[in-house]
């Protein structure tokens, strides 16, 4: 059975580095744990790191987090579905919001549960995902401030996740100015400017992060040691906290080019091959993980002499050349994964999850 491992020692070192960095700049931060897909074993390790706040986009995951560590501050980081308002208030101490009608339902749920529900209002700064339009945000805040049992604790934005719009000094200064405008207009104090994510960390390192940005939500850089802004690893962080191991279930020397008339494969694509490879052979290892578990474009053999040549729903085929490693059926091939690769694997019930100390 294929399995993924989380190295707890490397995760702790990545966490300690980020925690020191944020403390040096008086920044509060929360760990985004949605990539763990509610896996209790992994969540227990993350929650033991010492973080005060965790963020997720699934209510069921927040429920698990609260069952493990009731004292932890939980943040629901996408606009809630209206039908889930009561559950958001039950399991999230804070939620990110963009729709007035939904906040009204959160207010009603908070009253019914005798709770004060805290919210961060997200502002649209160009990514065109979630966010209140800038022309409307003063009126939006005016309506929200009237709602009972709702406390506005922050203004925030999301960048990069959909279209790749990068954060820069100008955009984040705008966010700081909007916060100042709301405070002056309504005589309210808004503690958080949640303008930071993994992609914003390089602005800290360059010394160009606006002073007002005081809250970050970080997932990818913690788990992968990735400089998301420049799509490269940080040298001083571990890039292999997660590893995937898949067992070889068939190993044979086969032609490189298939024979017969080619039609569409199961993903709707038609393969093409260099005719110069006709007659060539190589060893091909079939491993016990497939497209049901992960897209083959998001995992990479650690051994650079190997490369993935195809995949179906339950199997991935790896070209291992002349098999200089003397691999056999039953051996495992180690893969590294990018963010989406880990996310998909973690959501698969067919891949075992293990800890590596």
UniProtKB/TrEMBL annotation:
Domain of life: Bacteria
GO molecular function, one term: alanine racemase activity
GO cellular component, one term: cytosol
Lineage: Bacteria, Pseudomonadati, Bacteroidota, Bacteroidia, Bacteroidales
Record's protein name: Predicted amino acid racemase
Protein's organism: Parabacteroides chartae
InterPro entries the UniProt entry points to: Ala_racemase (IPR000821), Ala_racemase_N (IPR001608), PLP-binding_barrel (IPR029066)
Cofactor: pyridoxal 5'-phosphate
Chain ranges passing through the membrane: none
């Amino acid at each position: 059975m294929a399995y993924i491992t989380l190295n707890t020692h490397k995760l702790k070192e990545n966490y300690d580095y980020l925690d020191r960095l944020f403390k040096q700049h008086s920044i509060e931060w929360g760990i985004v744990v949605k990539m763990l897909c509610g896996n209790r074993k992994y969540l227990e390790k993350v929650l033991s790191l010492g973080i005060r706040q965790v963020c997720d986009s699934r209510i069921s995951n927040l429920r698990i987090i609260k069952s493990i560590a009731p004292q932890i501050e939980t943040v629901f980081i996408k606009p809630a579905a209206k039908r889930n308002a009561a559950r958001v208030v039950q399991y999230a101490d804070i939620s990110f919001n963009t729709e007035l009608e939904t906040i009204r339902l959160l207010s009603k749920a908070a009253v019914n549960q005798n709770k004060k529900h805290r919210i961060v209002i997200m502002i649209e700064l160009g990514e065109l995902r979630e966010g209140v339009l800038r022309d409307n945000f003063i009126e939006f805040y005016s309506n929200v401030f009237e709602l009972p049992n709702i406390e506005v604790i922050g203004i925030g934005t999301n960048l990069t996740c959909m279209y790749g719009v990068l954060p820069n000094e100008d955009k984040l200064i705008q966010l700081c100015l909007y916060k100042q405008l709301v405070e002056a207009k309504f005589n309210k104090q808004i503690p958080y400017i949640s303008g930071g994510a993994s992609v914003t960390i390089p602005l800290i390192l360059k010394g160009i992060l606006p002073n007002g940005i005081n809250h970050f939500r970080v997932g990818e850089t913690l788990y992968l040691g990735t400089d998301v802004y420049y799509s490269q690893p940080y040298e001083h962080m571990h890039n292999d906290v997660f590893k995937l191991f898949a067992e070889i279930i068939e190993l044979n020397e086969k032609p490189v080019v298939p024979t017969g008339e080619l039609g569409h494969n199961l993903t709707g694509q038609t393969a093409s091959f260099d005719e110069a490879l006709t007659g060539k052979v190589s060893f091909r290892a079939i491993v016990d993980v497939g497209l049901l578990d992960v897209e083959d474009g998001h995992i990479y053999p650690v051994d650079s002499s190997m490369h993935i040549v195809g995949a179906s729903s339950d199997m991935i085929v790896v070209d291992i050349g002349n098999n200089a490693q003397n691999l056999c059926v039953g051996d495992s091939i180690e893969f590294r994964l990018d963010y989406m690769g880990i996310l998909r694997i973690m959501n698969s019930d067919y891949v075992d999850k293990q800890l590596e100390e």
